[in-house]
Prior knowledge:
Order of helices and strands: EHEHEHEHEHHHHHHHHHHH
Distance between the termini: 42 Å
CATH class of the largest domain: Mainly Alpha
Radius of gyration: 22 Å
Number of helices: 15
Strand order of the largest sheet: 2-1-3-4-5
Strand content: 5-15%
CATH architecture of the largest domain: Orthogonal Bundle
Helix content: 40-55%
CATH topology of the largest domain: Arc Repressor Mutant, subunit A
Number of strands: 5
Shape: elongated
Number of domains: 2
Amino acid sequence: MNLTASFRPHVLIADDEPDHHRALLALFSQAGMRISLAFDGMQAYQRALAGAPDAILMDVRMPTLDGFGACRLMKSHPAIAAIPILFLGSGGNLKERLHALRNGGADYIAKPCAPEEILARIQIHLPAGHRTTAQADTPPLNAAAVLVRAAQQYLVGNLAKAHSLAGIAREIGTHEKTLSRAFRAHAGMSVFEFVRRERLRVARRLLADTPLTVTAIAEEVGFSSAANFGTAFREQTGMTPTAFRAALREGGMAATAALMQADGSTLAIARHRLKNDEPQFA
Length: 282
């Protein structure tokens, strides 16, 4: 598929070893594509913001910020969130392939791979990369707000993990103090206050919608023990998890009041809160 001069797709290739892609670069050029290069994940994010490519071919493993971290930042910025990202990786690790596809990747290409196949896969995704006028006119988002949104999305997808501030910052390519300041400014809470809020939000849903035991729910949402979970849940709702579940099943006002205390909802919407209980991002 040769592309006409009237439309020359712009593809950003992010890889710390671009010499490995000489044949691919030549093929892209023959196909009429414009190419930009980035040598680590943070540079890829910055060049995506500056150049708004139609597609991004991103190596999973890069210095400074890996491909997954760069993807989190890109998907958290409305101006470039729609750009399809195709990951390049070793392919031998099923967990890595699934992680790529579940966390914003449009495709995962296992290395080694023929340049012709990479080109064909990119061409499949190019229509999704064409920006609408609305996307093109999206106002710039504050860099700190992007960090907070990326961190929040990462945390919501990994609630069961035991997190450290350093580890969270590393996942999105920033520093602990920068992340803490950004959370205070844009979310009005600390990183770990957000984690606690989200763990309890998911726990309420699991108590309402599943037969999981309190111990299993505590483990599922990342509390170190059922006792710690019970204490945190009672502090937020005024009820134990068991009492909350029983009240929901009975349709009593106690659970409604607990939801109001947890979420600040009005009486008119409190009874329906769990149905629309979605994570709230900054």
